[in-house]
């Protein structure tokens, strides 16, 4: 989670939900046009029935109609122009009075909308905090964070079960735009992770851009939730052990992994293409982790329809060619390769 190019951003922690909101200029323009429509309609109603009104100076013309509409809609009501016929009074009662109410709503609508929107948002936050559980927290909405979320979606995790934490409000706004719930704040701070309900999370992905930030976030997550699985990315391989000691269950070394693929692509470009296919969910070949089914117990790994890469048994991971695997046992966890369409 690097600082933005223009410098650090002032932190305003809070939960932000996915939404599509009109720009302030558009909202103001819409209100002004509606107010103008109400005003013009009132002027026309008065002018068409001008013989039913009386001015202290005599007859009512177009300017007098505009003046009467202004003082009436603003509830000033000087009383120098008044409806005198039953028709004019009926029009005032049935039409102009409701228009006056609408005009006042437009005038004070911004304040009312701000109050109701804030109350509505606070209610949504309280309800979300009481209901959210078994979600995935992604700390950092940069390139790695966005890629991780795409993989989560490809593997069936819905957007409402993913929470983004990032100190940059613009990054959180971007996450909101694609349907994600976001929290503005430093994921290394206890109160920010508590806003994300880390104590009820299914897993945490740390996708910070700096290794020291990854260490701090991992330590804080592990302190708040000792059992949640933590997957952390690290730029330098020498810091991988430090992340594991901090509580990370899985550490992915981004620079070393990229370097290996770059070197491998020189002599074996097709191997790199297959690796990219495997790690890109939702197309071609996909990697899956699953438990052994009842009808697979007693079979050998090569007898399965899926291609078995490893078997985890009693906390120990065995490669597909390890003779200790023997036949599959209940509660074995398999890592398999399967076609995306299968």
Q: What's a concise summary of this model?
A:
By secondary structure, the protein is an alpha/beta fold. 46% of the residues lie in helices and 18% in strands. The chain folds into 3 domains: 24-130, Helix Hairpins; 133-256, 3-Layer(aba) Sandwich (Rossmann fold); 284-339, Regulator of K+ conductance, C-terminal domain (Alpha-Beta Plaits), CATH 3.30.70.1450.
Would you mind describing this structure in some detail?
This protein is an alpha/beta fold. It folds into 3 domains: about 25-130, Helix Hairpins (Orthogonal Bundle); about 135-255, 3-Layer(aba) Sandwich (Rossmann fold); about 285-340, Alpha-Beta Plaits (2-Layer Sandwich). The chain has 10 helices and 13 strands. It has helices spanning about 25-50, 60-75, 85-130, 145-155, 170-175, 190-195, 210-225, 240-245, 255-265, 270-280, and strands spanning about 15, 55, 80-85, 135-140, 160-165, 180-185, 205, 230-235, 250-255, 285-290, 305-315, 315-320, 335-340. It has a 7-stranded mixed sheet, with helices on both faces. The protein has a 4-stranded antiparallel sheet with strand order 10-13-11-12, covered by helices on one side. Helix 1 packs across helix 2 (about 60-75). The longest helix is centred in the first third of the chain and has 46 residues, at about 85-130. It starts with 13 loop residues before the first strand and ends with a strand. The model is unreliable at about 1-15 (pLDDT under 50).
